[in-house]
Amino acid sequence: MTKVITYGTYDLLHYGHIRLLERAKELGDYLIIGVTADDFDKSRGKINVQQPLEERISAIRATGLADEIIVEEYEGQKIDDIRRLGIDIFTVGSDWIGCFDYLQEYCKVVYLPRTEGISSSEIRAGQSSLRLGMIGYSSFLKKFFRESKFVNSVKIVGICVPKDGILKELKPEMELYTTDCQTLLEYVDAVYIHSSPSQHFEQCKLAIESGKHIICESPIAMSIKECEFLVELAKNKNVILMEALRTAYITGYSRLVLLLKAGKIGRIISVDAVCTSLSIFGDVETNMKWGSLETWGPTAMLPVFQILGTDYLEKRIFTLKDEISGNLDMFTKIDFTYSSATASIRVGNGVKSEGQLIVSGTKGYVFVPAPWWKTDYFEIRYENPLDNKRYFYQVDGEGIRYELVAFSNAVRNKTSDYYIGNNVTLEICNVMNDFGCKKDNKF
Ligand code: C2G
Predict the structure, then answer these.
(1) Buried b (16+ CB within 10 A) or exposed e, 343-377
(2) How many whole angstroms from 129 Cα to the centroid of ligand 1?
(3) What one-character DSSP code corresponds to residue 397?
(4) Is 35 exposed, middle or buried (0-12, 13-18, 19+ CB in 10 A)?
(5) Do the Cβ atoms of 426 and 225 come closer than 8 Å?
(6) Superfamily, domain 251-394
(7) Per-domain residue ranges for the chain?
(8) With respect to CATH, is domain 3-122 assigned 1.10.3720.10?
(9) What is the DSSP string of 221-234?
(10) Tell me, what DSSP letter sits at residue 289?
(11) Among 5, 9, 111, which residue has the most ligand 1 atoms within 8 Å of its CB, making it the best to mutate?
């Protein structure tokens, strides 16, 4: 029996894929089709894949061409599969010609002519892109705009700034540059909000009432009540309200949380997150600056609430104001006490510290080096260093593009893939509220 194997993403399965598979099947008696896992595609730069793995597998199964389907999850797996499964022929389309000659050491390699005139990316490009507007004034919006070009299901077409001339360098790239939010809302399908946290509630409310989908920097509101109101309103208006907390959309971070929940370090006793920067977040031009908790608090609280939950017994807030601006906190520490665990976040805007994340457990601990929030590497360490494990992940563009892909998929599928649970979103808003009204604060 001649066993043939071929691999692919097979996103939005089309006749080009099917013709390839039919000819692959004719090369032998038994055809194995390897479908690439979501994370593997992301790690090799294919971030725009629309269908999740299970959908792509069932589409392949429905063709009836596969005698066996496997999942391709890591670089180099092809060699493992060829040896393990006793493959005689590896085949792939001619767009890959020369890329897999190294497999000739293990089996015959056949490049089949690719079908011209169709591709998953052309199909995706043919779909209407989500017309996105930006609201805010932070220079971060320039980075966000640059990153959006990697996401072919989204097109940033407009921006609303608080006063004319702000972020003027973006003007030539925008179909619409305005200081009026309502004008922008009438021009787009969705908005990205990165303004002062105290403005988020009103801007989200206006956008939802206009029937627009939203991805908003965290916190989306400054109290639980306001946050619950927005979540309810979004549900009634059938729009997506997503929190822009980039770390949550980074594969390395989400894998870390899964490993911890799987008990890799035993029962978790403490979570310690540090985030600091010297650049005063906000915008120098408008002189609208933000404190450390507004800038870094949601990011630092994310692992605390995702790993330990939001049912802490009490929190103690220590904060130092910034002499220059007077009312902004330049450094804030919050200690959370749980029934059988503790957590601490230290955030600084204008203060420097080691931006690491450490999660301590009864069997070992996790060390994520700075900047932990762009999780591309972490270690699980045990008593016996020989048992230590290291994890590496590809992170392009600080996670903005992954966040945008997640947002456009959520809008298309009308399912808010909750990378961030509602309870976490609500509790972040609650902490901001308590901090703002000085509850629990020990200065
Ligand atoms: N294909 C084709 N004609 C097209 C489009 C794709 O023959 N018009 C072939 C590709 O050459 C590939 C298979 O269909 O052999 C799957 O294509 P994709 O889903 O685009 O995945 P790709 O990343 O090209 O898969 O490691 C090998 C790669 O995973 C190959």
Answers:
(1) bbbbbbbbbeeebbbbbbbeebbbbbeebbbbbbe
(2) 23
(3) G
(4) buried
(5) no
(6) Dihydrodipicolinate Reductase; domain 2 (3.30.360.10)
(7) 3-122, 128-246, 251-394
(8) no
(9) SSSHHHHHHHHHHH
(10) E
(11) 9
Contacts of 205 (CB under 8 A, 6+ apart): 229, 230, 233
Report how far ligand 1's centroid is from the alpha carbon of 11 (Å): 10
- Residue pLDDT, tens place only, 128-149: 789 999 999 888 999 999 999 9
The pLDDT, as a whole number, for residue 75 is 87
Q: Phi first, then psi: what are they for 369, rounded to 5°?
A: -70, 165
In percent, the amount of the chain with pLDDT more than 90 equals: 78
* Residue with CA at minimum distance from ligand 1 atom 7: 114
Contact between 395 and 376 under an 8 Å Cβ cutoff? The reply is yes
Please, what is the average pLDDT of the chain? 92
* Residues contacting ligand 1 via CB (< 6 Å): 7-10, 16-17, 20, 36, 92-93, 95-96, 114-115, 118-120
CATH for 128-246? 3.40.50.720
